[in-house]
Amino acid sequence: MGLSWLLNNMKKKILELLLLVVIVISVCICYYLILFYLLLGVYLYLAYKKITQLRSNYPSWEIFNQNLKRNYDFAIIGGSSAYMTVRKHSINKNFMNWTLPEQHFLMCFQCIKHYFGILKKHGKVYILISEKELLLQDKRICLPFHRTIFHPWLYERIALWRICIFSPLWILKCYGVRTFSMYVKHKCNADNNMKIIEDIALFLKERDLDLILVPLKTSESLMNFAKKYKNIQVKCLNDFLKQCGC
């Protein structure tokens, strides 16, 4: 009798302990799920806000074809270094900001082909580059963001899921946070990228627009290298910032 009572009591204690463990685990899971969804909600809000802000620099086709103001003085374009430079300095003039993190020169060219028409005659396109970017080649055709501006109907159709197509690391870069890149960039000859820039310059010249290359660090070698290309104008960063009223 005593042994049976002891065994029943032990079973009861074990069951109570297991129940307590289950309750604790359930509470922890609920806590972390709530925390996860709160953080996800904050991220989606911040991502949506940033993407909406960036998209405002690229007018929709409906606005573009109807009543868009088409006399902007200049546009600034470039990749990660250019994007961080524009964030750092306050530019007061009437300009379009087409800089984006991880945007390489072919992407810049596609963007210019789509939106050069909003610049006034003899307007200028400043392409801001670093020496590192000049020596790297990105194999991607475009960023997910480019699909939303070049094909806006796609962005509208994917509705609530549209933010999910953007990499969280890329969104962080848009907020100025320095992160690593998920994509492999290959070293290349600087002449390859300069050839793309020269093609951009010729494209703009045919449309009464000017391309001006702005090295982001005072590099005499880069300035001299760029001057080999007669269709490309070069301006140092300090002169560019003064012109922009910074």
Describe the structure.
With 246 residues, the chain is of the alpha/beta class. It has 2 domains: 1-56; 60-243, Rossmann fold (3-Layer(aba) Sandwich). It is built from 11 helices and 7 strands. It has helices at residues 2-55, 61-66, 80-88, 105-115, 131-134, 144-150, 152-157, 168-174, 190-205, 220-226, 237-243; strands at 72-78, 95-99, 119-129, 136-138, 185-187, 210-215, 233-234. The strands form 2 sheets. The protein has a 5-stranded parallel beta sheet, with helices on both faces. α4 (105-115) runs parallel beside α9. The longest helix has 54 residues, at 2-55. It is elongated. The mean pLDDT is 79. Keywords: Membrane, Transmembrane, Transmembrane helix. The chain crosses the membrane at residues 20-46.
